[in-house]
Amino acid sequence: MSHLATYVGLADHSEQTLASALRSVAEGHAEEADVFHTCHLLAGWSEEHRRRLAPVVERYGEEDVEEPERLHHDGLAQVRSGPVGLLRDLQELYVLGAMVETTWTVVIQGAQGLRDTDLLEVATSCSTQTARQLSWFNTRMKVAAPQALIVAR
Amino acid sequence: MTDRIADLHGVRTPHPRATVWPARVDQYLDDGLGEGDVDRWVQSACLLCSNGCGCDIAVKDGRMVGVRGRAGDVVNHGRLGPKGLYGSTPWASSPDRVTRPLVREDGRLVETDWETAMARVVERSRSSLEERGPLTHGFYTSGQLFLEEYYLQAVIGKAGIGTPHMDGDTRLCTATSAAAFKESFGADGQPGSYTDIEHCDAIFLYGHNMAETQTVLWARVLDRTRADDPPRVVCVDPRRTLVAQEAERTGGVHLRPRVGTNLALMNGLTRELFANGWVDEAWVDAHTLGRDELEETVAAYTPEHVAEICGVPADDLRRAARIFGESQAVLSTVLQGFYQSHQATAASVAVHNLHLLRGMIGRPGAGVLQMNGQPTAQNNRECGADGDLTGFRNWDNPAHVRELADAWNVDPMTIPHWSPPTHAMQIFSYAASGSIDFLWISATNPAVSMPESARIRNILSSDDCFVVVQDLFLTETAELADVVLPAAGWGEKTGCFTNVNRTVHLSEKAVDPPGEARSDYEIFLMYADLMGFTDKDGAPLVRWRRPEEAFESFCSVTRGRPIDYTGLSYEKLRGPTGIPWPVNEAHPEGTDRLYADGVFPTDTEVCETFGHDLVTGAVVTEQEHRAMRPDGRAFLKGAPYSPPHEEPSDDFPMLFTTGRTVFQFHTRTKTGRSSSLDDAAPDAWAEISPVDAERLGIDEGDWVHVTSPRGGIEVRARVGQVIEGAVFAPFHYGRWDPRGVADAEHRLANELTMTVWDPVSKQPYFKTAACRVTRLRGGDGPAPAPTTTASPATDLAPTVGGAETSSRVLDVTPAYPLDPAGGS
Predict the structure, then answer these.
(1) pLDDT tens digits, residue range B197-225?
(2) Do A150 and B132 touch (CB under 8 A)?
(3) What is the CATH number of domain A4-150?
(4) Run of H or E residues at B547
């Protein structure tokens, strides 16, 4: 059971990290109106995921992994500025989002094995929304990339 | 003789359901002229709203002196509206036309010749391209040019320069219409027809004040609602418009949602269809995708829950849903109340959902009209001078891009297709940050029409960005340009345009433009020649000269696409009526309605877009689209309601909403120069509800200050019929005024609006700002708002004073070949 608790904890933490990174990117790139509003919207989704996960955390507990973290994901320590900065920030959001998504994938597998329908429902719907967050990061990066790489001052 | 300021819609010609709309020929001639004085009549169509009425231009002594409707035209059956009658021609001979090119010298615009002006444009364009490449170039065009001009612009931009930064002010008015069609049906294109008005038993108008935005179409509706077997009208609008009054009169219902809550209302209506078993399950099963997900999305929106969000009584919502659910043929129309408001695309798509759930599409009376704001917006979408790819092609489909590259004989890599073409708000944002430094604006006035106007003025007046403006007058935008090119207008050039209803008209040149003005077509052609754009064999990229050749080239690139012009020619368009596309071998006389067979252009190889997440705007990938196997089925797509971006606060406790008034159009460049129209609505105003007026101590005509976090206006107050807690201001009024009134500096509604847009259509939201209203001082009479429209006031005389027009009801109604009810 403790290993599922580990991943429940990981889901909770990584959603928290993603939410806070999204809020930082929103404020840091507020002059891009769609980035500002969409990042705040998506941060709300991650926060909602944590709320939905709360009863599960209650049930399984939340355990920290013993083994060392190889990939550090402390969120976005500092938001960059300018068009290329936006590109890099979106890219890091994508990486954080991918961490969240794969965590949900693992939790879903655990929930399947335990026949825990409540957890399965929460994890599946959160995972679907995380995929939508990733799609938006990807879409926005593709739109921004040529201009940022070639002509941004 | 009729004063069409006093009588907006003209005499009624009521007729029973499923019979042809009778013909009535409306005519206006300049003061003192009779029909015998007219030298000749020249075929055209009206350019002063999106309805696209067929008309003839009266010419005398080389001047345009009036207009008359074309009785045989399928769109208007001879009628014209007040703007068309009074506003079509006076601007042309206005003494303040720009007649010579202007260039900026020491901060001031000075007259020069074409050679000098174009040399500056070309020099700057070349140096910018050489230094940093095509992504430095942006083009911002209009909803007023002709098809040939947009097409030429698209070829120059996409195949000559290779910039994705092309859009039009159509983004502000009509982008949501196109986006909603694409999300639901796979491609742009109005599915229904105006003939649905004759065949429906209910009409739903969503955020669409048709009585003011398309007066001739509203006359068509009135001729049904005033007959013995009227359809019931349902109106969704926060103001008590003439449409709302007609809803009450016909036993329909007026729903007044709080500004910014449209999607919650739509989700409520959708839920009622499911909850009451009004869904045509067999049809839905055969022709759509996504039914169950949609039901799940709307499940929470009970009438009571919707009432909390929207402020619409639960029973009113139930009643409206019942009308939709129990009618046999519903016509829905949608406009800016949805397009320019929160969750625009999702709310507009929800209208499609209702029709799809009831199987009410593709047959007479069961139609959807996602309206356009401007008369040639459709052509901008078709040609790809805005954020679309020519011929309704999918930028994300390499085969579609190759088709265009082959047609233009350029390398497919030249045509930018790595992401959707850049939308207008992003173009201005790139100009603000300096990555676009060459911006060409044609026939529009963003300094007045775009949101947060102070921001737009800063961008246009910045030294970093070279701005070219071509227009008829020295508009608020042209005043900030580096080069101003004098353009020819309607009646001064030849070309085609297509109305919201897919009907293509040819507009012939009636008179010469004044001074040295040239058509937009000639100007773009001159630029292409001077720049020396070539195809991949080194031949000139633009091989055609006359507009007719451009039209033929465009027709050929539409082959095989849902929009098929291949059966059209100038010769064919010189017939009695405009013709709705597709026009091809299978449909030589055009097509009254799309999707009669329930098959939609959603195949992965065919569709114009793979779709978007309606909430975030993230694009659906090709693989995801293919996996859904749409195979010609329409998409049912839903989204949850979310609150608007700016909600009322202690500092800004009211909602600010903008819109039109019947007598003005497109920042008044043309309508402001018609004395009949200008007298009827000479100045801006702010409309507030009687309850708010009393609370704030404001009387009719008092000067008020309306402010948002971005700016403010000082205008006179109309105590009118807007919903409590909201403020309405018309958006036509900029700094320019035909009479030079003193208060013109502080009446620009877009000083208050927000830089924010819909995630899918990228249409800016003009209706979601918060504001506060304070009384400044007493006025010297009522507000300058017309009283015969959506802004009536008690105890005030009706607005009158238009010049004389004539109106003649025909004894014999002409035949309209595609009309399901036939004709004589």
Answers:
(1) 999 999 999 999 999 999 999 999 999 99
(2) yes
(3) 1.20.1260.10
(4) helix B547-557
